[in-house]
Amino acid sequence: MKKPVIFAIGLALSICLSGCINIKAPDKPIEINLNVNIKQEVVVKLQKDAQDLITSNPELFPQ
């Protein structure tokens, strides 16, 4: 087939299918729920701070 014939067939198909495809925004806003557990980070930070305190003040924490 020649290029104009292929183009015409493609154009005809796209016109026929254009009524079948609808793009519509949702009525409600999209909700993204980000439940992030930061407990581990806080515990690690507290452990590091406590270790630094013990190391810098050995007289307060005898073993």
UniProtKB/TrEMBL annotation:
Keyword terms, alphabetized: Lipoprotein
Organism: Sphingomonas paeninsulae
Name of the featured protein: YnbE family lipoprotein
Xref: Pfam families: Lipoprotein_19
Superkingdom as given in the UniProt entry: Bacteria
Phylogenetic classification of the source organism: Bacteria, Pseudomonadati, Pseudomonadota, Alphaproteobacteria, Sphingomonadales
